[in-house]
Amino acid sequence: MGQKPFNDTFLKACRREEVPYTPVWYMRQAGRYQPEYREIRKQYSFFEINDNPEVCAKVTRLPVEQLGVDAAILFADIMTPLKPIGVDVDIVPGKGPMIGNPIRTVADVNRLRAIAPQRDLPFIGDTIQLLREQLSVPLIGFAGAPFTLSSYLIEGGPSKDYHKTKGFMYAYPEEWQALMDKLADVTIDYLTYQIASGAQAVQVFDSWIGSVGADDYEAYIAPTMEKIFTALKATGVPTIYFGSGAAHLLPIWNHLPVDVLSIDWRIDIQAARALGIEKALQGNLDPSTLLAPWEFLEKKAKAILDQGMAQPGYIFNLGHGVFPEANVSQLQRLTKFIHDYTKK
Description:
Elements: H1 9-14, H2 35-43, H3 46-51, H4 53-67, E1 72-73, E2 89-92, E3 96-99, H5 106-110, H6 117-120, H7 122-134, E4 139-144, H8 146-155, H9 163-171, H10 173-197, E5 201-206, H11 214-220, H12 222-233, E6 239-243, H13 250-253, E7 260-262, H14 269-274, E8 280-285, H15 294-308, E9 314-318, H16 328-342
Parallel strand pairs: 1-4, 4-5, 5-6, 6-7, 7-8, 8-9
Antiparallel strand pairs: 2-3
Helix pairs in contact: 4-7, 7-10, 8-9, 8-10, 9-10, 10-12, 15-16
């Protein structure tokens, strides 16, 4: 695989440069929908895969080889950097990340340590270096954004409403800012380490930020994201910011020093551009359409592509991650359609 010419179409789109076709990759493109991944999980837990560079590289590489996508994303979890800073976290099948020592008090915020990725997470750097030798497409590193990380830390696990998280934010603004500062430093140090190890772009996942109103985002979160993306800009690699249900935040995000905004299906690309978004855009097929008949999926993808191609700087993706019920052959067919339809 390393002998193939390097395909930098994704990186060009991030920089809003001319591309020969629309690049595509899929959030959570390595995972439970793949029979091969399910076999690997019979032998290893999630974190055991992370800790083993050869296995982790294989899992990361698999969808590139299987689907023909234009970028790989490091196989890890947004919880990965939390263990070294003192968080008791486990990925529970059917539930997601569960926190054994959730944040309830100021003392809980203060006990969180700084991260030293080279010491604490050497296997991440080893996996990235291995993948750079093996891949002929760019490798995307990633991390969770402070709000989304804090939602797990405060709620103790997944939540539908984030009442405890936002309640903490409103009731203890100074302690909230201390938590944001700590998690911002973790995010910067972790992503900088990934980039130094060879990641060619990085995405910050703020999956649950849509639960926050625009005014609260401006007051409690925007300064933290400004700090993170300003620090990452110094590395020179493209940065991507993803949030679910966050169309109301796009005008604010447009002022952040980030290169690509990744949107979900609740706002179409044309509407996002009409808001004055001048950055590159990524998205935004509803993952549920992967279960639809091909004719329906093709029509949806075509409409998204027509809007995306209207301006430079567009990357096809889902509006959220691939889910276990998705079909490999459907994703293969979709990837081929995207390439064939947009080829110049």
